[in-house]
Amino acid sequence: MFTVLLVDDEELVRVSVGFSVRGAMSGVQVIGEAANGLEGLKRIREEHPDIVITDIRMPKLDGLQMIRAIREESLDIEVVVLSGYADFEYARQAMKYGVTEYLLKPVESENLRETLEACIGRIRKRRDLIQEEKLSKRVTAYIDSHYQEDLFLDRLAEEFGCSSKYLSTLVKSETGKNFSAYLTELRIRRAEDLLRHTELEVKEIAASVGYADQRYFNRIFKKHTGKTPTQYRK
What's the pTM? Predict the structure, then answer.
């Protein structure tokens, strides 16, 4: 469900637009109204609507001032400017605050529906991106804390309920490296630390960073550092 707040100093306009919004498409709910920008800003802060449809010329605080406050407070809200004035200057000022939707009164149902669809599309895209970023961080955090185990891309993907290809994309977006390269780099960095600060045997270090085969570990270590583990320790 996507929520809408209506801000206009004319009650008949609020009633008319609210009726149009409710009939424009399913999954959209009008959660409130405000008669001026000051009241609108208060309700925005309290109710966090997804979309605000606002007039420009209003008492106490006009629409542009309200929009500026929304942007200054970094509120994640889609704003639709509704005005009876076909004046490019209002549109230009609104565009400075990231407003991409500008409707003239009286609003036609089809234009309103298209505008709401555009707003909802951007909201969904932002939400998907946020979820993707959260999952990316969870995946890399998991790798960081389980690097010493047998980690495989397909098993990790199963653990997080996504495809191997998608998981690989997430890791690269978060670290700049593919899964294998990131895991190897993590293991080698940890091995370097253990070689510098402990007296553990190379075989023990190899096992502690996820390599059961010491010869394979030696080969990977030299490939990345230019030295064997023994040479590195010296």
Answer: 0.81
